[in-house]
Amino acid sequence: MIARCDLHIHSALSPCSDDDMSPGMIVGLAKLAGLDFIAVTDHQSCGNCAAAMAIAEAYDGPVVVPGMEVESSEEIHLLCLFPDLAVARDLEALVQAAILPLKNRPEIFGEQHLFNEDDEVTGSETRLLMQACHLSCDEIARQVLARGGVCIPAHLDREANSMLTSLGVVPPDFPTDWIELSKRTDPDTFFQSHPELLRYHFLVDSDAHHLAQIDEPGWPIDVQPWTEPAEARLHLLAALRPQFRQ
Amino acid sequence: MFTLDQVQEALDAQILAGDHLDQRTVAGGYACDMLSWVMSHAQPTDVWMTILNSINVIAVAVLTDCACVLLTEGVELPPDVATRARDKGVIVLGTQASTYEASARLHAFLNRPQ
């Protein structure tokens, strides 16, 4: 079936996003928008994924895929999506062991709120999440794939933190069949400038930092039918997993 | 030590945001386009030379409290980033010189015989 997806949404844990991006608000708006899948993808953390998954299941919301937007040593943003919370947490531990022990300064970067399953703020992440880790993009992709996840170069059309800006290319051996574009570009125009990337599947996500940005129609992805969320996550990841480039 | 207004004049750099350059002192520079390296290496008396001009540059300048950001290669300061710089009291200068040339000029100025 064609599933409607928005697989790149920042919660209030990301310092650059609004404080009202709680897991409950995100899930609620995604349900109103009629989305089948969303992914909560904060910078270097999956700290609000458990709350979003629990709330979505309690209120019959969209299927929530645990994820992270990992920033590599090359300052490339990678959309990392996982089949379950345990492997997401495992990758998070690896990434967080590879960041500097800098404290967040909310007055500069913004708040990093953590929420529980009742959508209440339970605390703040004190380490600064707006920073690169010292793992390369190749190493991150290898680790994500080894955990059954997928690692997609994020917002390739943007200047800041895109693989195209940092490396000049998507390396042919980078293990992905999918690339992500932001809503700031028109895909036709983008691919005219980058015909070499036409061999990839692409998806456009909202990269929402504000509630109003959560994607209304959602990006269509062909996913095998499912009966429950855990199965749905496996089927979505199967659709995104690289077939030829691993 | 020199004040930032002396450095700005010596480098013939344009002031893109900020004022009171005479109130900042300069003892060195840091040339880097990787924010994570700047975060962990730049000093408060450094001129940070970079081609990056995103909003995160201002955050990193505040975090490190570097004397100023010097945009090289004629890179422009987008209006929203300029506004953020002024809000946060970050001084941003600009030059047509490359980062290499700007570093060399800065080094020569700071180390000239008295």
- Which H/E pattern describes the elements of chain B? EHEEEHEHEHEH
Q: Profile the largest sheet of chain A.
A: 6 strands, mixed
Number of helices of chain A: 8
The CATH architecture of chain A can be given as Alpha-Beta Barrel
Shape of chain A: globular
Q: Which structural class fits the helix and strand makeup of chain A?
A: alpha/beta
**Range of strand content of chain A:** 15-25%
Rg of chain B, alpha carbons: 12 Å
Please tally the helical runs of chain B, counting DSSP H or I stretches of 4 or more residues. 5
- Quickly count the domains of chain A: 1
Task: Determine and state the CATH class of chain A.
Answer: Alpha Beta
**Broad structural category of chain B:** alpha/beta
Tell me the name of the CATH homologous superfamily of chain B: HprK N-terminal domain-like
The stretches of 5 or more residues of chain B where confidence is low (pLDDT under 50) are none
CATH topology of chain A: TIM Barrel
Distance N to C terminus of chain B: 11 Å
Q: List the uncertain runs of chain A.
A: none
Query: Roughly what percent helix of chain A?
Result: 25-40%
- Main interface pair? A-B, 13 and 12 residues
Structural notes for this entry:
Chain A is α/β, with parallel strands linked by helices. Chain A has one domain (2-240): Metal-dependent hydrolases (TIM Barrel), CATH 3.20.20. Helix content of chain A is 28%, strand content 21%. Chain A contains eight helices and ten strands. Chain A has helices spanning 23-32, 49-58, 85-96, 106-109, 137-146, 163-167, 187-193, 229-240; strands spanning 2-9, 37-43, 63-71, 77-81, 113-115, 121-124, 150-153, 178-181, 201-204, 219-222. In chain A, the strands form three sheets. Chain A has a six-stranded mixed β-sheet. In chain A, strands 5-6 form a two-stranded antiparallel ribbon. In chain A, strands 8-9 form a two-stranded parallel sheet. The model of chain B has no long low-confidence stretch (mean pLDDT 96). Chain B has a five-stranded mixed β-sheet with strand order 2-7-6-5-4, sandwiched between helices. Chain B has a two-stranded antiparallel ribbon with strand order 1-3. Chain B contains five helices and seven strands. Chain B is an alpha/beta fold. Chain B has a single domain (2-110), classed as Udp-n-acetylmuramoylalanyl-d-glutamate--2,6- Diaminopimelate Ligase, Chain: A, domain 1 (3-Layer(aba) Sandwich), CATH 3.40.1390. Chain B has helices at residues 4-11, 35-41, 55-64, 79-88, 99-110; strands at 2-3, 14-17, 25-26, 28-31, 46-50, 68-71, 92-94. In chain B, helix 2 (35-41) packs parallel to helix 3. The interface between A and B is medium-sized, with 13 and 12 residues.
